[in-house]
Amino acid sequence: MANKFIGYHEGQGFLYRLSGSTKLLFFVLVSIACMATYDTRLIVAVGFASILLFRWAKIRWSDISLAMTIVILIALFNILMVYFFSPSYGEEIYASKTVLFSGWGRFYLTSQELFYLLNLILKYFCTVPLAILFLMTTHPSQFAASLNRIGVPYRLAYSVSLTLRYIPDVQEEFAMIKLSQEARGLELSKKASLIKRIKGNLQIVVPLILGSLERIDTVATAMELRRFGKYKKRTWYQAQKMVGGDYLVLLLALFILAISFALIIVNKGRFYNPWA
User: Fold this and answer.
1) Of 34, 105, 249, 271, which is least surrounded by CB within 10 A?
2) What digits encode the pLDDT tens for the residues 219-241?
3) Residue partners of 92: CB distance under 8 A and separation at least 6
4) What transmembrane ranges does the database entry give (predicted)?
């Protein structure tokens, strides 16, 4: 799975035994808790716990390196744009100003702005890893069943399941086509220039997408012939009943959410202010 996008990762352990509904609700509740507050202490604690969960699930860095690289690039771009449009927003939030770098014009750096940007980037690393962990430890059919269990129509839930199942196949097909093209003399490795690699990959991606659309049409037709969607409800072969461990995990998620709201009250707002 190295250098691939995220997908279901077979494994054993506590996380794999949890119900898909439990993991989905845990992710939603903890994400709300982290998004509601800018208290660095809680965000760092959740982010650190997420890293430990990866080790617990025995998921290697090579399994998620590509996805995390993209997340890091997006996070860096986001904080750059925030600073570009509002370099003094941290001062307004924390009602204090400690200049670290004078810069030029309106572009200068303060401790308050740096602390605010740090909180922004930390939010990515306390929610995105949980999302990746959920997707990599939850079978697509369990994911669909969990979506249906919390109220999502089963037609939509089944579409999500099919998408998650199909992504690894597309990745493998892309890798095979890329290797065959390189065997024919088309250089697509890091040795080639960036422009040449982009053009070469586009030559693979475009026909692959067109072929994928044809497969989707074939699958949709086959499902219609089997009268999929005739009834309002359906059962799920991969659905799991909630047991004691599931309820403990949900209680933990509610506890984290309660801490988030309590910190908002204690801090008299969403932001933890070390300069107060």
Assistant:
1) 105
2) 777 877 777 767 777 777 766 77
3) none
4) 24-54, 66-86, 114-136, 247-266
